[in-house]
Fold these 2 entries.
Entry 1:
Amino acid sequence: MAFPATRLRRLRQTGLLRDMVRETELSPRHLVLPMFVQLGTDERTPVESMPGVERLSISHAVEEAGEAAALGIPAVLLFGVPAEKDAQASGAYDDEGVVQLAVRAIKEAHPELVVMTDVCLCAYTTHGHCGVVREDGTVDNDVSLELLAKTAISHAAAGADAVAPSDMMDGRVGALRGQLDAEGHRETPIVAYSAKFASAFYGPFREAAGSAPAFGDRRTYQMDPANSDEAVREALLDVEEGADVVMVKPALPYLDVVRRVKEATGVPVAAYNVSGEYSMIKAAAAAGYLDERAAVMEALISIRRAGADIVITYDAKNAARWLAE
Ligand code: PBG
């Protein structure tokens, strides 16, 4: 007698049947490509710690967005790298700021592409924190909320299809929802970075966005990697405050959290395969320690298997190409 597992293995070997018994699907339609957009230069600037990722001028961002769309990737997520920073992060909510200009240009060239924007202050503040800092060095939650709401409104006014607050201030989803509604953007969805852990895996991103904190760290507003009950509570709270999609970030070290958040909320869940996760595979592949393509595809299907509906990854274009082969 053959064991059922043996028969199932046999079934999988017979061509098309392998696909029929496959539990999880990964397709370009699940992917979001993050992009760094900069002002003041028409160059593509390589990000040293993220081989293959570049900071793009607006015209290059339009080009890159078009390539993503042509590969079947439905959405991009924009991060701005402003030419100047100040204590009030005024570049974040400037209607002629880098993200606002990029949104308009991309939507004009590729109206079918979903353009999401990261809403945070850290790339726009001189000190690199995600909110406004008081004289004693602590973050002023409520003043930060006002500036974050202004930022989200100016992104929506520029044509963003969804805003993604990543600052982790308390009450930010409710504040954004209230202000967006009041300013005529009732239909702009919020993709909330609900369970954002204080993670070493953001290191390369901070080089890309020039957003490393000048003092202290983000542990007062980002989550302790040891906690998953708290992550579930944060996600439920964000849904209550009006989040349309909740996000877990980073992805691979937190797949259990992805699963729990999906089961607890029942809303679409996004997982962010962050910069350090990307760079780890690139570095190991460059050293000849592993097969880049196989490792990336395994990582991405695992994030989907854990329960993520949407996977945000710097490998979106590579993955889409590999899936098409
Ligand atoms: C801004 C923000 C960060 C990331 C996304 N939005 C960095 C941080 O919190 O320091 C990280 C993304 C990545 O590492 O790819 N708050």
Entry 2:
Amino acid sequence: MSGILRRRCEGFRQIKYYMASFRERALAVASSRSSQRHCVEEGPISTYFGRNVFTVEKMRKFLPADALQAVLSARTTGEKLPRTTSDKIASGMKAWAQELGATHYTHLFQPLTGATAEKHEAFMTPGPDGTAIEQFCGGALVQQEPDASSFPSGGLRNTFEARGYTAWDPASPVFVLDGTLCIPSVFVSYNGDALDMKVPSLRSVQALDKAATRVAKFFNSGVQSVRVNLGLEQEYFLVDDALFNARPDLQLCGRTVIGHTSAKDQQLSDHYFGAIPSRVEAFMKDFETEAYLLGIPLKTRHNEVAPNQFECAPLFSEITQAIDQNMLLMIVMQKVAEKHKLRVIFHEKPFQGVNGSGKHCNWSLRTDDGVNLLSPGGTSEDKLRFLSFYTSVLKAMADHGYLLMASVCSLGNTWRLGGSEAPPTTLSVFSGSTLTKVFDAILRMKEVDWDSGKDSISIVGTIPEIIPDNTDRNRTSPFAFTGNRFEFRALGSSANAAGSTFVLNAIVADSLRQFADRVDKRIAAGEDKEKAILTTVRDFLKEAGKVMFEGNGYGSDWKEESLRRGLRSVNNAAEAFHAFQEEDSVAVLTGTGVLSRTEIDARVEVLEETFVKKLQIEARVIGDICLNHVIPAATAYQNILAENLRGCREVFGDETDWLGRAPERTYRQIARLINSLSDGVAALVEVRRKANRLTDTSEKAGLYSTAVMDAMKKVREDADHLEMLVDDALWPLPKYRELLYL
Ligand code: ADP
Ligand code: MG
């Protein structure tokens, strides 16, 4: 061997040592970790549940009577807090928070980034002569003006003015987290435009309350209001933080951009509902404890389908609280995971080839007197009420299903939807066999003898008492009725649920308004109320027929069938964002007062920009990983093979039988793949540059969602193939089989 060659081989051996030790170090650290608990509360959960929340009971202790009354009426009637009272509220809040060790306060809001935002301020104010006091006034409680010029606003704020205000939403209780008093807030522009997820959500709840109360009054004139209930199931992955830190893609994108599937992952369904690994259980118990202290009523925990994938769910509650608590839960889980040297991955598709994660929205409507309007009930009247609400939801789905599916679109969900066990990209509603039969019967009574009135009621009377047992929970449907609620499964695990539920609330509100209008019109024309309602139910069933589907949503025949029915599917997120701007969508969103036209346009711009920026990052990361990790490792192995081939030749001369066939074959494959990968990365850079030159955001998002994504897929294929060929000891990144097993 020549001197140069020998030195080169030495060099590669050093690289080999360095690279292997990097991944191996991470693996060694990961495998040595124990399952220790960190936050242990004594006694039953009920003894410490909600300790860190400023509940009404605590307000009674810390607030004077007039201040307490002001908070309560702000909650029920939305009345503004007078300045004098807000000072008293702030002072009582501070006293309570200080008992829990709080030194700072922050408005906690939900900007359009989809995450939460906070800016902490100390209670401490310097006094005279080097002293200090703790101060918190009503003004600071009610309103903050964070320098929020960097939040995406879709052009709603002039950046030179950059004024956005956060304002306390008194309906959401304040709480103490890690020594900071957190004040749940809305975020609006100087002109009052919504800059966050919460404002449209609150507006949608109001719109739905108004429309649903109108319909509920047909059955009980005493109904004063209708509330929305939401139960959010949260799926997530856990990865050891040493391994996480050894993967630049997990660190920067929250998902792996390359990685060959593990020979065994979820094929045997042995993880789903399996025994929870002890290290994970310790983590779960700790974050649950923290959640209980914050009044989050977590009920369930279990292993999900993919290895290292888990789920938790609280008991459902009123929608605003459910969403706020879900956002808070995600923060708490991240914080607690740090103590356990774990990382929680909320990304929708962290690992290609295994299930992604969703955030299932269990949604129902309840009157102020406690009746679940999506529960079939026992009497004929109950059933008719149920049918009125049910078919109104169906009609909303038939008219605006595409908009609802578009509302879950994000880059993360793009990698998940339509994939393994993820909901299909077309919206359909699963009702179960019992209800389907009832609907058929209602539709078939073309010639009802309305005068007798009895026929109509007897049809309604045929709905069996116990519907929940008859819904067989079709898991392949994106929108399924599960006995007393609908479960919307297309939302991504990292999303703020408000982004989709305000659409759901708005379209159902619009549908219920139409229902009430039609019934009122019939009654005004002299029709009997029951008949008017049943006829409207039947009309809605007819109009919503196309969206009802009981079969397998994963099947290829459903794709064809849904096309035949004229149902639209979201195949490209960049395109789907514009669903918000279609005439029908604008009419329903502005008509219900949920978003103004300006706010819609701003949101679409933010969605597109976020999509492009995230994809830009992913495209860079995959390029860097290929150039800095994959190609060097493959080249190092290629050189070892070359050395081996040269050795064979030295020993065997021209005896072709003995020449290393295997190393030669691998050498050639690797050489081809390295070239192809290097070309692929160059092509990716080129197409990215081309996209970046576009000034129109929509066009840019369009090119990113097609050409850039395609180029990334090609690069990944080569990189993953190389992972299979290169010596395991040389591979620098933790592999799927290592990441996916704690
Ligand atoms: P599964 O995984 O079988 O769907 P889970 O127990 O994980 O069930 O989650 C179901 C969620 O639905 C929980 O948050 C639960 O509180 C919620 N839920 C139950 N009934 C209702 C209802 N009427 N309205 C809204 N959410 C509900
Ligand atoms: Mg569940």
